[in-house]
């Protein structure tokens, strides 16, 4: 029996080799040319109009590229490059795109002169390592030596292309103070600036100049109940990562009830378990309770009676920062090794004061005077 070999019918065109390389480079050059004219002191703003007629005027590279509808896969990589630069550094988005496009253009010329792409790639890698080494040895300055004025000027340069450019004097100082507040030094003596430790809350309704830096941490939520005090000082903070709601049986547990009068007892026990948990918290000395999950209305009254502030649905990230800043331990269960439920006062964090304030239209919980200044 004989089989005829059939070539599968693949619809579409297949391109390969130099043609594709040239196309990719041309596409990247096109993207670079768009943002090129917005770079530098004589750079001009771009006016972008989208499908529904919204107008954006900006000279921020990442914003321009985000609003361009780029179809070409190679050009898309450049757009992602700019977005990554914006996320990681916050400045230099246009320069990154222009440098990348120029490198591609030069590499394409080399490929045409019969140099293999792999050789070019390894050459670029070597050049990158050498460049980084040179920058570290010859050009890099320690931030401590620069003094505040230079840092403020750096911040101003970065802000100039952004929306708050008009108030760059005010914001540059704010930014420098915030970053210097979260400075940490590790055992080896390296200085680190964990930018994630700076939380930014935006509130509508007041002037931009009313922005200020809070030594401590702010949560974008209010108290869980109106009966709670507006401020607690000094604050002992418990950070929880579980529900303070009626305890439900876990999946797969069955309760067989022979006497219907026992049902009420089961319900009561479910409510009591939560009550006992809250009493353990309060007896350990906690007067501020933050949880990432919910708190029952039934459970809230115990906090109100004890004069404690409870906040529910706190973002996990916020909880971690608060725990770090106040020296608290984020607790995900009360169970200890023996299977008993306990809460030790060593899990609590400390702050001078926790207060709820109304900023513009939002209620905000402010945690002031934290033990370490790892969050501002």
Report the helical percentage: 40-55%
**Can you identify the CATH superfamily of the largest domain?**
GroEL
Secondary structure tally, helices = 11
Strand content is: 5-15%
- Here the CATH topology of the largest domain equals GroEL
Based on secondary structure, the structural category is alpha/beta
Low-confidence segments, given as residue ranges, are none
- In total, the number of domains comes to 3
CATH architecture label of the largest domain: 3-Layer(bba) Sandwich
Please report the total strand number as a whole number: 12
**Distance between the ends:** 79 Å
Largest sheet: 8 strands, mixed
CATH hierarchy class name of the largest domain: Alpha Beta
List the helices and strands in order.
HEEHHHHHHHEEEEEHEHEHEEE
Average pLDDT value?
A: 81
Radius of gyration: 29 Å
From the spread of the alpha carbons, the general shape counts as extended
Main location: cytoplasm
Keywords: ATP-binding, Chaperone, Cytoplasm, Nucleotide-binding
GO molecular function: ATP binding; ATP hydrolysis activity; ATP-dependent protein folding chaperone; unfolded protein binding
Pfam family, one: Cpn60_TCP1
